[in-house]
Specification:
Number of helices: 19
Largest sheet: 8 strands, parallel
CATH class of one domain: Alpha Beta
Distance between the termini: 69 Å
Structural class: alpha/beta
CATH architecture of one domain: Roll
Low-confidence stretches: 1-22
Length: 555
Amino acid sequence: MAYKCFILSLFCLILFSCQNAPSKDADMIILNARIWTADDERPYAEAMAIKGDKLIAVGDKTDILKFKKDNTETIDLNRKFVAPGFIDSHVHLMTGGRSLLSVDLRHADSPEAFSRLVGEFAQTIEQGEWILEGNWDHTLWGGELPHRDWIDEVTGDNPVLLMRLDWHMALANSAALDFAGITEKTKDVDGGTIEKDAKGRLTGILKDNAMNLVMDKIPPMTEAYKDKSFQAAMEYFLSNGVTSVHDVDGLNRDVASLQTAIKYQQAEKLKVRIYAAGVLQDWKTIRDLRHESDIWIKTGSVKGFVDGSLGSHTAAFHDHYADQADDKGFFINQNDDLYEWISAADNAGLHVLVHAIGDSANHTLLDIYERVIEENGPKDRRLRIEHAQHLAPDDISRFAALDVIASMQPYHAIDDGRWAESYIGPERIKTTYAFHSLLEADATLAFGSDWAVAPASPIMGIYAAVTRRTLDDLNPDGWVPEQKITAEQAMKAYTRDAAYASFEEDIKGTLIPGKLADFVILTEDITRVNADKIKDIQVLQTYVGGKKVYDVGKK
C-alpha cells in the first residue's frame, strides 16, 4: 500500500512539474546579438527566447534555437548590443511631459534670448493661459538672476511661472504675482524666500517653499492636457531606452501620474512601467491607497525634502558657501517633522525616499534614518537618499552600514561641475557626486535623471559617470576624476540596482529567464566603446514585455 501511495505521489509530482515547466514554444527569438545581462553569473549571451512578456531562455545560439517553432518570430541583430531596459530612478513625469509642450529655456544663454523665447511662446497660446516649466539656467549668462521686468512686456496677461532647471527657484511675472496676491509686503515663508531688488521691488524670483505661493494657485491641468503630457513623456522615455521610471511626483496633487497611468493601462496603452511615490507628509493617504500594485504600476513609496539645491543656494551645508560668507543654505523642513514623518511612514510599511543635497542635509538625514532603524527594528526597508550630492567624507561609509540607497543623477555632475567649485570651494567638491567612493564603501547606487531637471537619457548619464567631462568641455580628463566609475558599474545602477531600489529585482533589471522581456537595442557596446564616445551611442529599438514600443527608423 505504501509503495502504491509512493508511485501515485511520484506520478502527481511529475504531472505537476510538466504542467508548470516553461513552454518550449517561443514567440520571439533574438539571435546573433551581444547581450549584456547585468547578471554577474553570466554577464554576456548571444541569444534569448521570449514567450508572452517574459524571457524563457538566455544563452548560446544553439541552445536558444531549440525554442524555435513554425510561428516563432526570429530577429537576427547582426552583433548589435542589447541591454536590460533602463530604469530611471528619479523623474517628475507629468511636469516633465508638460515641459515638452512648453517653452524650453535650457539653452537660453543671455537675458535677451530668455525674453525672446518666452515672448515667442506667448504668441502661440491663448490670452490668459499660464506659461510654465521653462527650466532656465542663469549660469549660462554669467549668474545674474532673471527679473520679471525681462518678461512682463512680452507676456502681457499670461501669468508666468518659469522654473530654474533644478526646480528650487522660479521666476514669476507680474501677472502671476498679482494672481497669487504677492506684494512687497508679503512675508517670507518657512523654508523659502521672496526675492526683492535694491529698491525693495519684487524681482519675481521665488525660492523653494515660496514657489508654493504661486504654484498652489495655478489652475489644475485638464484631463486632455494630462493625457497629452503623459503621452509625450512616454514617447520621450522610450526613445531613450527607458522602460521603467520611479515617478517621485506620482501621487502629488495636480501633477500625479497614477490615475492617468491606470487609465492608460486599462486601455492597454501603457508602455512604461511606473513606480509612483507620494508626499512624505501625506503618508497616511498613501498608506490607505487601494491601488493594487502590479508589473506595470506600483505604489507604496513616499518622498520628502530636507533642503533645496546647490544652484539656488538653498542646499544646506555645514559651512558657508564659498561665494556668500553669510550663507549656509537652509532646511525646507525641520528635523523634528522629518523624523516624525519618516518614522511613521516606515512603521506603516511604506518605502521612504528623501531629497538631500548639501552635506549638512545628508548628515542629518542619515542620523534620522539611523534612529528610525534602531527604534522601529530590523526589516528590509531600503531607505533612499535622493541626490546625495555633497557628502561629508565620514558619512560615505554610513550608506552601506545603514543599507541606505544613494539614488543619484550623474548628468548633474557634468552640468553642475561647470560652476560648483565657485559655490563650495575645492575641498568639498572632492566628495561631490562621489560615485566611486560610495561603491568602494559597498553602497548601492541607483541612477536616474531628475527629468525634466536633466535629460532622461541613461546613455548621457552613463557617459557622465564614466567620464565626468563637464558640458563646457573644460575638464577633458574629468571633473573630480577620482570619482569616475566604469561603464558596467554605471549600467548596473540604471538596471539591476535600480530595480532593487523599488523592490522589483525579482521581475526586472537583468536579462535572465523568468524576468520581464524589457530590453533595449543600441548601436554600440557601452562596455567596450571608448568612454568619450558613449554619448554618441543611439537607441535603435526599445522593447517592453516582449513588444517593440520604439523604433528609431519609424519616428
